[in-house]
Amino acid sequence: MTRKPKRELLTEPVARLDAEAVSAALQRGLAGLPPLATPDEDPALAAQVVWVAEGDEALVHVDATEVRLTDGALLVSVELETDRWRRQPIVMPFALGKPGEAAGLLATTGELPRGEPLIVARWGALVQDAVWASLLALTLAVAPPARPPVGIGVADGRLVVETAAAEVAPA
Description:
Layout (H helix, E strand, L loop, with lengths): L7 E10 L1 H12 L18 E5 L2 E15 L2 E9 L6 E8 L21 H26 L6 E7 L2 E11 L3
Antiparallel strand pairs: 1-7, 2-3, 3-4, 4-5, 6-7
Helix pairs in contact: 1-2
């Protein structure tokens, strides 16, 4: 019985974004805007937006969104307040891996983010999902149209988006 050689997917980075660029894209995503915009389609980003879910409202301070990038990890803090709670941070760590580790467009994070327990219980999953959706939208926005992203990682203080370079059989 002959075995087919295993094919390996090679990737190449198409974008290396610093924390400021990632934070700006996440702020836009949390406000319901595309992660990147050309100057003629870039509306003024509101400092705060109101989210409504199942009759509850939260004021999201998109301008206070903070991002930290360390090797293999992304840490995001989003501040929000409700009529019952003063302004509180919700903090989400995402383990992304390093570029070239073939983790794909996946991340590991907690079931719920960190923060004030009652705010996290009500809004945590929604904020976490919105941050992740905004991050995935950013990967699509920076990748060339004909080469969608296949990986995301963090190295040297930068978020690295990778696309498929070529498929080759090992020698």
